[in-house]
Specification:
With 254 residues, the protein is mainly alpha-helical. Helices cover 45% and strands 3% of the residues.
Length: 254
């Protein structure tokens, strides 16, 4: 995500009510919170309970001494610092399978997916979705010309077909993640194949439930590890048992 601009117009020393922010400021706030993994709802520039609660959660996590329905220059600075930290994906090595596996582990931890069982399932999903290559793939990658095939047979979502470590699909998802990472995925959907973008989408989708509304913590947490039902985070029951076995193998190696 780019630098905060609209929120920086809030004057230092003058706390502002969230509900008094204009739509451009709210869009910027919602985008920032969702980028950081907080469930702020739709990026629509409208004040509501999801935005308020996501902001309150951010304030709690960062130990900010301000009432949860207000925002000020100090908390905006903290928000920017958190975004700057989140943007530091450079340094990951995607040149080998081992390097990519390590990058996924580190990005899980950075985005707040910290349990070994959770990391194992994220790894298992990337393992399965990329046919064990751990390289971003295109939907129907096994065909000689996937683009031509998908244009003919899936015109309903072409050219926003599946790409990445997990298949990012549909125009609204490309638009959403484009806003979150500051890249024009709408006009250049092929950018979803860049390893650093595919990595963010993979982990963020599990963290926030962006793919199906189901978060990884719904099925794998400190109390349980349901590697079969966790597939609901991505694609219902499709290959759920096979991926569960992969998750067990990855867990044993962590």
């Amino acid at each position: 995500m780019k630098k905060l601009i609209e929120l920086m117009r809030i004057v230092a020393g003058q706390p502002t009510l969230l509900k008094s922010l204009d739509s451009t400021q709210l869009i910027e706030l919602q985008t920032a919170l969702i980028t950081l993994g907080y469930p702020a709802g739709d990026i629509d520039g409208k004040y509501g309970a999801k935005t308020r609660n996501a902001w309150a959660e951010f304030l709690h996590d960062t130990n900010q001494a301000i009432t949860q329905d207000t925002i000020d220059a100090a908390t905006i600075a903290k928000l920017q610092a958190s975004l700057d930290n989140a943007a530091q994906i450079q340094g990951y090595d995607f040149s080998s399978k081992a390097g990519t596996i390590n990058a996924i582990k580190q990005e899980c931890i950075r985005q707040g997916i910290g349990l070994k069982s959770q990391i194992a399932y994220v790894l298992a999903t990337a393992d399965h979705e990329t046919n064990h290559t751990f390289k971003p793939v295109t939907e129907a990658y096994w065909l000689a010309d996937p683009d031509a095939y998908l244009k003919q047979h899936h015109a309903d979502y072409y050219p926003y077909y599946g790409r990445g470590y997990v298949q990012l699909t549909w125009d609204y998802n490309y638009e959403k993640y484009g806003k979150l990472i500051g890249e024009d995925l709408v006009h250049h959907p092929e950018l979803a194949l860049k390893p650093e973008i595919a990595l963010f989408v993979l982990v963020h989708g599990f963290k926030t439930g962006a793919f199906t509304g189901r978060k990884i913590s719904d099925y794998i947490n400190a109390h349980t590890a349901d590697f079969v039902k966790a597939r609901y985070c991505i694609n219902g029951k499709d290959k759920a048992n096979e991926i569960a076995e992969l998750a067990k193998n990855h867990l044993a190696s962590l």
